[in-house]
Write a structure and sequence with these properties.
seven-stranded antiparallel beta sheet, 237 residues, alpha+beta, Cathepsin B, Chain A, Peptidase C39 domain-containing protein, 22% strand, Peptidase_C39, elongated, 7 strands, single chain, 9 helices
Length: 237
């Protein structure tokens, strides 16, 4: 099957290679092809494939193309992010940056928050000025970047979801650290929290992730990954 056919089957609206819209007829034909290959039992409704099949697709075409094929899914099945499995796609007008392969989630999170607060910066210059290391920045280093750019912040620990809801109630974003609850050394990551709201009847956390993604995370999932560390804007000049 072609990339376009796989994207059609998995629910993507556009061809991840050309950007062209996928037609309903193409979608049905692609599903029929999947039926013939034995990957699905019907051409109607939503087609679901196993994680093993998705990982094989990712191995063949790469993570970025696979995520575009998945359409409604935010992350690829190989993601180590503890918020990945049930992340809900989110549209936002606020800046979303992508750190790529470099361990610079702290720098990129600062740049996103600074932009929202009317203090845009060049993230490459932040990386040059403050440097970065394989295990990323510490919260106090993230706080220093904010303060050096005229945003006074609190560097908190042991915070709760109620605290985050209060801090963001006026529209100001905050930076938090998440980690794999089972193995914090395996995955540790700074993200931007824009607020806590409801989506389709469930309470969710609105997140801008410096892996180039914006999504909602159900609060039960977020609670397990949230370390309690938060860098919170106090006032700014």
């Amino acid at each position: 099957m072609t990339v376009r056919q796989l994207a059609a089957v998995l629910g993507a609206e556009y061809d991840p290679l050309t950007g062209e819209q996928i037609t309903p007829n193409e979608r049905q034909m692609a599903k029929a092809s999947m039926l013939g290959l034995g990957f699905t039992k019907t051409v109607s409704g939503v087609t679901r494939v196993s994680d093993d099949v998705l990982k094989a697709i990712e191995k063949q075409y790469g993570k970025e193309i696979t995520e575009q094929m998945l359409g409604g899914n935010v992350f690829s099945p190989s993601s180590k992010n503890p918020l990945a499995k049930d992340a809900i796609p989110r549209n936002t007008d606020r800046l979303v940056l992508n750190q790529g392969q470099s361990p610079t989630c702290g720098h990129n999170s600062c740049a996103m928050v600074l932009d929202t607060l009317g203090k845009p910066v060049n993230v490459d210059q932040l990386m040059q000025k403050y440097g970065y290391k394989i295990d990323g920045l510490y919260p106090q280093e993230v706080a220093k970047i904010m303060k050096d750019n005229n945003i006074d912040v609190y560097n908190f620990s042991a915070r709760t979801l109620n605290d985050l809801s209060r801090y963001t109630s006026n529209g100001k974003p905050v930076i938090v650290r998440i980690a794999d609850p089972k193995n914090p050394k395996e995955f540790s990551h700074f993200v931007v929290v824009d607020g806590i709201t409801e989506k389709n009847g469930q309470k969710v956390v609105a997140i801008r992730d410096p892996h180039g993604k914006s999504y909602f995370s159900p609060v039960d999932t977020f609670k397990k990954a949230f370390t309690g560390e938060a860098i919170v804007p106090r006032n700014y000049k």
